């Protein structure tokens, strides 16, 4: 492979990182909004966010991406490929993330909420000053897993013709025919990025726990992976941190 | 232009349902492979020799942290150069099974860890051979409690099967794409495919949740 072709891969890596960051920000916003909405006092708010979450956890991210790119224009909106990809990833991983937010908030001991009530905090203060600071550190490990799933999901954007890493690899493969080498290289690239994310999130977890006076457990395997959208182990068992 | 054409929807539906069969077939075969391979990984990660544990652990981590789509491309384009040719569907099943086996390995691990120590001690006290301890005592209890978690991975895999369209498997998405390419109308086929996914995945996930409650874990 020539340097020009390597450059193509690095350009692809850059787009992959951009796509990951954009959709992660969107997914985080949606996750908090939908997660909090599912704990709302009003049934209609709970219902609407429940429908959103179940729908987007139920459908396939790739089909959603196709739909936003090919079907939506016929209904009158044309999205640029990059934004269709970002939107699809943000919407589906936001739905998964909302379950994490909901689980972590519900895992905060009821006594904390009651104490805040007794001190006549407003609902806003209760959430912002008492509940969330304790819930957020518990969200970090599952969010880390989701972020890696999201990073893997960005490869789907290559089918829309977005010039990210998998797409770059396809171009290089067509140019050189060295499939094993090209795909081997980009698999390693994805792995390195995922590794860096895991390390970064572990640091963040330690910091977040320290800020509310907790020590992260030493032997904790933060890398325990949960299927995106699964109700299996992990998502439901968030409240396991050392108190 | 009409926004939604029902007669066209009826026209593409048989093709989409044919694609659905392929999708379900890939999911079923992929699951079987993932269940078996995952168990192999989980057991290999418990062997006393680090010369088995370490390489298996590294490979599992690598596969789990890299995109399935790229792995599918790898299998699809690289295996033939090594002289191994499978049909696209077989390649897809291998890719799906291999990828998800790294997740099921983790599920089995949790299940095996969840078996009470007393069970191991009882097996030792009865001087059961190692193989029999695993097959008759530990695994039946471990697998029973992880069935819902395994089911969730089957749902996740089902939602990932549209990726097989990228390696020319005629699954639901590919059928929708071809129908769209023929008529320049993508709205109906792709919407129907998306809805079919929800229609199948959501009830199944409810079933898994019920199962989880029943098994009490």
TrEMBL record, chain A:
It is a multi-pass membrane protein. The keyword Hydrolase does not apply. Residues 231-243 have a biased composition (Gly residues). Residues 215-243 are annotated as: Disordered. Residues 13-198 form the ABC transmembrane type-1 domain. PROSITE patterns: ABC_TM1. It is found in: Cell membrane. The keyword Transferase does not apply. Keywords: Amino-acid transport, Cell membrane, Membrane, Transmembrane, Transmembrane helix, Transport. SUPFAM superfamilies: MetI-like. InterPro entries: AA_ABC_transptr_permease_3TM, ArtM/GltK/GlnP/TcyL/YhdX-like, Ectoine_EhuC, MetI-like, MetI-like_sf. Its main location: membrane. Gene3D superfamilies: MetI-like (1.10.3720.10). The chain crosses the membrane at residues 12-36, 43-69, 180-197. NCBIfam families: ectoine_ehuC (TIGR03004), HEQRo_perm_3TM (TIGR01726). Belongs to the binding-protein-dependent transport system permease family. This is Ectoine/hydroxyectoine ABC transporter permease subunit EhuC. It comes from Streptantibioticus ferralitis. The lineage of its organism: Bacteria, Bacillati, Actinomycetota, Actinomycetes, Kitasatosporales. The gene is ehuC.
TrEMBL record, chain B:
Keywords: Amino-acid transport, Cell membrane, Membrane, Transmembrane, Transmembrane helix, Transport. The keyword Transmembrane helix applies. InterPro entries: AA_ABC_transptr_permease_3TM, ArtM/GltK/GlnP/TcyL/YhdX-like, Ectoine_EhuD, MetI-like, MetI-like_sf. The keyword Glycoprotein does not apply. It is found in: Cell membrane. Belongs to the binding-protein-dependent transport system permease family. It is a multi-pass membrane protein. This is Ectoine/hydroxyectoine ABC transporter permease subunit EhuD. The chain crosses the membrane at residues 20-45, 66-86, 190-211. The gene is ehuD. Pfam families: BPD_transp_1. Gene3D superfamilies: MetI-like. Residues 20-208 form the ABC transmembrane type-1 domain.
């Amino acid at each position: 492979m020539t340097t020009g072709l390597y450059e193509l891969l690095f350009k692809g890596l850059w787009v992959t990182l951009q796509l990951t960051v954009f959709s992660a920000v969107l997914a985080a916003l949606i996750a908090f909004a939908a997660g909090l909405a599912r704990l709302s006092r009003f049934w209609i708010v709970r219902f609407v966010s429940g429908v959103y979450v179940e729908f987007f956890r139920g459908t396939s991210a790739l089909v959603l991406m196709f739909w936003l790119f090919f079907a939506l224009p016929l209904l009158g909106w044309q999205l640029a490929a990059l934004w269709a990809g970002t939107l699809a990833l943000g919407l589906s991983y936001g739905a998964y993330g909302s379950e994490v937010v909901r689980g972590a908030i519900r895992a905060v001991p009821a006594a904390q909420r009651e104490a805040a009530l007794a001190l006549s905090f407003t609902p806003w203060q209760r959430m912002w000053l008492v509940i969330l600071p304790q819930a957020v550190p518990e969200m970090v490990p599952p969010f880390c897993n989701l972020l890696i799933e999201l990073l893997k999901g960005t490869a789907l954007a290559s089918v829309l013709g977005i010039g990210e890493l998998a797409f770059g690899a396809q171009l290089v493969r067509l140019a050189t025919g060295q499939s094993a080498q090209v795909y081997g290289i980009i698999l390693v690239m994805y792995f390195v990025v995922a590794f860096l994310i895991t390390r970064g999130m572990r640091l963040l977890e330690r910091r977040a726990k320290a800020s509310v006076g907790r020590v992260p457990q030493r032997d904790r395997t933060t890398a325990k992976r949960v299927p995106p959208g699964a109700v299996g182990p992990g998502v439901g068992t968030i409240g396991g941190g050392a108190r | 232009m009409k926004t939604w054409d029902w007669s066209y929807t009826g026209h593409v539906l048989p093709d989409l349902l044919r694609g659905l069969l392929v999708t379900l077939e890939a999911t079923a075969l992929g699951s079987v492979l993932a269940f078996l391979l995952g168990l192999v990984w989980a057991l290999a990660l418990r062997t006393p020799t680090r010369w088995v544990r370490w390489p298996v652990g590294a490979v599992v981590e690598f596969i789990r942290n890299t995109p399935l789509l790229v792995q599918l491309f790898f299998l699809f384009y690289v295996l033939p150069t090594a002289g191994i040719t499978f049909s696209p569907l077989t390649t897809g099943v291998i890719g799906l099974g291999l990828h998800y086996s790294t997740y099921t390995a983790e599920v089995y691990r949790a299940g095996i860890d969840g078996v009470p120590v007393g069970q191991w001690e009882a097996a030792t006290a009865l001087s059961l051979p190692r193989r029999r301890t695993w097959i008759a005592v530990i695994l039946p209890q471990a697998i029973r409690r992880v069935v819902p978690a395994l089911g969730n991975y089957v749902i996740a895999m089902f939602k990932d099967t549209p990726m097989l369209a990228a390696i020319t498997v005629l699954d639901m998405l590919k059928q929708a794409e071809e129908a769209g390419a023929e008529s320049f109308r993508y709205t109906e086929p792709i919407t129907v495919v998306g809805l079919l996914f929800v229609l199948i995945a959501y009830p199944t996930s409810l079933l898994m949740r019920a199962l989880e409650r029943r098994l009490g874990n």
